[in-house]
């Protein structure tokens, strides 16, 4: 099974993917680590201090893989059986990102991105996944998010409504 997990930084992708990969015994790929290690980028953006992912190279890397979990901001570039989009109330983003040495500006950028559903919208528009799960993690423990994902994988429709602009 091919599973991709996307969402704004701080939504819990890495945490949830780790638990899920153990439960399902699937190899796990963190996309930002993978992009560096396998040089799946176009260039280094010094202004943003980040590699610019090459979608073609990323797809090529996963081309022959039939069983995996890939998690990261651009996970929706990778064709999968199931795409999981994690959401969180933007008010929670600062505490979710507290352990990182992000600047205040970068934290605020991510808060805004989540508020306006930047990643979720792009993921839904561009995804070639057979199914999409959309999950609000705000009031759930990582284990509970994983349990909901397992229900989704089992066939239950999981597409939660969120509106952070209300
Ligand atoms: N459902 C959750 N509830 C509360 N805290 C969470 C939840 N999921 C993740 N966290 C915490 O939020 C922080 C960011 O999680 P992480 O998995 O690194 O997010 P991402 O990979 O999407 O950037 C971590 O400190 C993690 O322990
Ligand atoms: Mg992460």
Automatic annotation (TrEMBL):
Keywords assigned by UniProt, alphabetized: ATP-binding, Kinase, Nucleotide-binding, Ribosome biogenesis, rRNA processing, Transferase
Q: Where is the signal peptide?
A: none
Q: Name the Pfam families on file.
A: AAA_18
Give a GO molecular function annotation for the protein: AMP kinase activity
Cite the EC number: 2.7.4.3
Q: Mention one GO biological process in which this protein takes part, according to its record.
A: rRNA processing
Q: At the top level of its lineage, which domain of life is listed?
A: Bacteria
Q: What HAMAP family does the entry give?
A: Adenylate_kinase_AK6
Q: What is this protein called?
A: Adenylate kinase
Q: Which organism is it from?
A: Desulfurobacterium thermolithotrophum (strain DSM 11699 / BSA)
- According to the entry, what is the taxonomic lineage of the organism? Bacteria, Pseudomonadati, Aquificota, Aquificia, Desulfurobacteriales
